């Protein structure tokens, strides 16, 4: 072989080795970059899944707690309403009810009682419309106010209706 053939082959092999090394480094960089991108995408999905799962768990716990509070509040209000209704019926038998319980007639709505004061003793002193309020405010409803205002204006009458069959 020629004197220049062996150095040419060595140079060619060296250049080929350099080219292959360059391609290897380039390919290694792309593989690492792709692997990093895949890992980061997986990590983001996993974090989203964990956050979503935690949020769902927290929401379920909050919802159960709020439902429990709402139910307790409903029971409490129901008890208050029932207590109020029972009290309304029993008011004529309380010591500070100033009329004879025999003279009181329970209506419930739009006023709680009509008291025919003195009727049980055979004498009529007056007719009293009584609204029982329990609780903190004791505010009248709109309908109760209408009845009160009508009575205050003296717009009360007595009628006899004859049923002819």
Report on the structure:
- By secondary structure, the chain is mainly α.
- The protein folds into two domains: 93 residues; 55 residues, no CATH class.
- It contains two helices and three strands; from the N terminus they run H-E-E-E-H.
- Strands 1-2-3 form a three-stranded antiparallel β-sheet, with no helix packed on it.
- Strand 1 and strand 2 form a beta hairpin.
- The N and C termini lie far apart (145 Å).
- 4% of the residues are buried.
- The model has no long low-confidence stretch (mean pLDDT 89).
Number of domains: 2
Give the termini separation. Answer: 145 Å
Q: How much helical structure, as a percent, in the residues?
A: 55-70%
Which value, in Å, is the CA radius of gyration? 46 Å
Kindly state the number of beta strands.
Answer: 3
Index terms:
single chain; 59% helix; 2 domains; 3-stranded antiparallel β-sheet; mainly alpha; rod-shaped
Brief overview:
By secondary structure, the chain is mostly helical. The chain has 2 helices and 3 strands, in the order αβββα.
